[in-house]
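Entry type: protein chain
Record version: 2
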Amino acid sequence: MGGSRPGGGPPPGTTLVAWVKTSLRDAIARGEYAPDQPFVTQREIVERFGVSTTTAVRALNDLVADGLVVRRRGRGTFVAPPARWTGAGAAPAPRTVAFVNFQDDAHQVAVRAGIAAECAAHGHRLVVASTPDVGSEEVVLRRAANEGAIGIIVFLRDHSRAATTIDELRRGGVPVVLVDRYLPSMPTDAVIFDDFAIGYDVTTAMLDRGHRSLAVLWNEEDVTSVRDRLSGHYRALRDRGLPELPDRSALRDYAAPPTARRHQRLRALIGSPGGLTAVIGGNASTMTLAASDLLALSDGFPGSIELANMDELGPYDVSPLAVVSATLPAREMGATAMRLLHERMSGSGHPPRHVVLPGRVQVVGQGRNTLSVTGSRATSAAADPPVVP
């Protein structure tokens, strides 16, 4: 960041982006840059104002959105004719919002639908960027900002390392809202579910069905949603005077190991003291995988196993296999996140906050939806989706 800052830097309470943008607007108004003439470059902004590349890009993007400057492919940025400037009769260009996520499962698709609906309501343009692996998150987030996004909603991956980049974007004037999970080490805006209550209520419902030998399986290990659900699970056990048994609920990715390893883990649970009468999935896909593995065990075992999950499966309010299932308002999560982001993009100075959305736990009738395994044969007796809350 070479050079000294003009005037010593921004006035107190003014963000770097607002300061740079105002300084450049004033320079245009004074005639320092004539219409249809090359404008100051991103590198020149960094050197002149002593700011980061992200701040320079955001300031230029805002000036483009205001109609003050235009980008010409292969030639650079130019001052627009005054008739195109916002405030002179021209409407501002749509502002771009990015949604960064990592897969198109039913849950994340529903979140995206909520975001898209709110973008349309506010006249924003939505772009979606995917992170193929945890190492790509920082690159994808920076690219979204550099390509014109002036606000970002992000669904972080398991074991995310993007906290530093998110902080960099926020300090550079690009607001970021997290969905489904939050960063314990950093104050950020986030829209999350009441995951502690979900873990507690699903576990309590299974205990009410008489289960004392149950296990919880996960497909993520290091995100706040599963950690909070595990805390709720443990609290439900404590409230019933039951021991916390980490070997039955530890945050280990059940889906990642090969089939033989998963079967070995299930056999260990079945052969442990008390056996296994119920499996709770941290989400519906994990529960479904566990059901498939149980049905595929070559050396069957006597008895039956009931299944539960801590979120819904696909388009159903309740998984057809689950006796207990939590329904989560994913679309509302996306819409709420976009409304929160819009506030930030409009200059809201409120401290970062978490918006917590409640889930709803549903239970089917006793004796239905039971995975029965006897001898070397396994069957699934599933009830119809309608449930009784």
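Comment: Confidence is low (pLDDT under 50) at residues 87-92, 373-389.
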